[in-house]
Design brief:
about 40% helix; globular; mainly alpha; about 170 residues
Length: about 170
Amino acid sequence: MHEFDPGDLINYNEKVTGSLLKCVAEKNDLPQFIYAHFLLPHHPYLFDSTGHFVSFNAATMNREEAYLSYLKYANGKITDLVSKMIKADPAAIIVIMSDHGYRDMVYTLGAKPYYFDNICAIRNISLPASSTITLSNVNFFRYFFNTYFGQQFTYLPDSTIALSDKYHKTGDY
């Protein structure tokens, strides 16, 4: 069995951060689309809210508390990253979007499901903030390109399901 090395996750996030900032710093005549995927905040929760490393075992003991602390840490990292991106390109349109929400309900009895509570924020200084809308990840980029780049992508039918028979059969989600 493969032993988990927390350094792999830490190195991954740092490598993605470095690559993203390098791309943003490159000056281009044409607009560019840069995509980065972080495992943050993502289990295992390796840092507390103040940035102190916590062991893998400690991070799995009280998952909700560890998650909330790591989420605060992640928010600080995201804020710092966005500030650096704005400094490199003050006119940048920045999208912060998660691919899923909190997924540890299977470890915490009675917990509410947060699988589909995604984080999504857009920074575009050239357009006023739009009205509050509800979109899943299925149509987000269609909305984004239609709104900000004058495209006319049609929206796709969308639904949300939990892929767990245990919770689906019991309705306990």
